[in-house]
Amino acid sequence: MKQIIVIGGGAAGLMAAVIAGREGARVILLEKMNMVGKKMGITGKGRCNITNNADMTEFIKNTPGNGKFLYGAYERFSNEDLLELLHSWGLKTKVERGGRVFPESDSALEVRNTFMKILKKYNVQVHLNEPVTSITVKDDRVVGVTTDKEQYACDAAIICTGGASYPLTGSTGDGYTLAKKIGHTITDIRPSLVPIVTEESWVKDIMGLSFVMLRYPLFLKIRYRPSNSGK
Ligand SMILES: Cc1cc2nc3c(=O)[nH]c(=O)nc-3n(C[C@H](O)[C@H](O)[C@H](O)COP(=O)(O)OP(=O)(O)OC[C@H]3O[C@@H](n4cnc5c(N)ncnc54)[C@H](O)[C@@H]3O)c2cc1C
């Protein structure tokens, strides 16, 4: 039986741990925060926009950059496969405007709790408040993972530490350092979904208002605050 260590318990880590468990591995999920899925809990304004029911070509078309890169991944596991899996775990979903799929309960926490239930089913050991500090490689193979508390031997480790946005949820970019230390090349990271801080205070009054700027620039002094600044 293989020992797999999943580093990080966000959306990716929860899925990786569940699938590794289902395939018969012994799985330990190491999460540095006091709970898993912290970011998942705030997605979709607390409702979790799980996926979209569009077909694969639409997904590719709407992916910035080289969307075609994702063909292989979608072939192996599509939005339909995801929904089938979640439904088989008892999570009911609904489709809203624009094909967006949400849990029927409108609760992102229900999605997280569903994963928690399935982690138990596959005997995944979840260790909270345990940040991973390094990965050990021997003869070109990952053989262990070290946290601030312990050292674990393993046959493989899956880095699921997320990006570097919204550090309060735990994603502080640790995965880049962990991967770099064991020889991976890390490209420059760029913000995608980030907070914007303005000097004008009236902006708070229109919070939540969406609009499209076509011709007229809005004269705001916008200071970009890197989201991994932790402030
Ligand atoms: C406000 C907001 C709303 C969003 N809404 C949606 C939405 O509705 N639908 C959607 O699909 N996406 C949404 N997203 C994007 C979505 O949240 C992310 O794409 C998703 O969370 C990425 O999952 P992940 O598992 O890769 O990373 P994360 O969810 O960031 O999880 C990474 C995990 O790794 C842990 N970790 C980090 N470093 C270590 C370490 N050294 N040791 C151990 N653990 C570590 C972190 O604590 C965290 O739990 C939203 C994002 C934000 C910020």
Structural features, described:
The protein is of the alpha/beta class and 231 residues long. The strands form four sheets. It has a four-stranded parallel sheet, sandwiched between helices. A hairpin with a 2-residue loop joins strand 7 and strand 8. The longest helix is centred in the middle third of the chain and has 14 residues. Bound molecules: flavin-adenine dinucleotide. The site of flavin-adenine dinucleotide has 31 residues, from helix 1 and helix 2.
Element layout with pairings:
Layout: E1 3-7, H1 11-22, E2 26-30, H2 43-46, E3 51-52, H3 56-61, H4 71-76, H5 79-88, E4 93-96, E5 100-103, H6 108-121, E6 125-127, E7 132-138, E8 141-147, E9 151-153, E10 156-159, H7 174-181, E11 196-198, E12 222-224
Parallel strand pairs: 1-2, 1-10, 2-6
Antiparallel strand pairs: 3-5, 4-5, 7-8, 8-9, 11-12
Helix pairs in contact: 1-6
The site of flavin-adenine dinucleotide (FAD) has 31 residues, from helix 1 and helix 2.
